[in-house]
Amino acid sequence: MKIKVINKSKHPLPEYKTALSAGMDLKANLDMPLLLKPSERKVIPTGLYIEIPPGYEGQIRARSGLALKYGIGCPNSPGTIDADYRGEVGVILINLSKEDFSINDGDRIAQLVIAKHETVIWEEVDKLNDTVRGEGGYGSSGIK
Where does substrate bind (predicted)? Predict the structure, then answer.
């Protein structure tokens, strides 16, 4: 799949690190280091502008290493980049740790996954088909 991109960052385009990777690392595009204090959220610019084809979305996901080692995540993960969005791709990061976290220019801050999606046409009805589960939710299927 080809996706049009404008790269206004100082960094190479995102790429897959292995042949079977689903996501590409996004890098921070900063003029100076940025400090993310505990419980603080900020939008981190990437310098990338993309044109996603209709029927697809860009999903912004946390990097597992940042989450495990430093408590850095994406609070709306996965964040969605719609096919009609043409602004700069930004990554919302949150510091869930008790320590300050410094983000430097070029740091890998999140992953971008391009995913197909369906467009729904609602069909209003008076009754839904019955299932064994029924209305059971929130743990109703048991612990084991």
Answer: 63-65, 76, 80-82
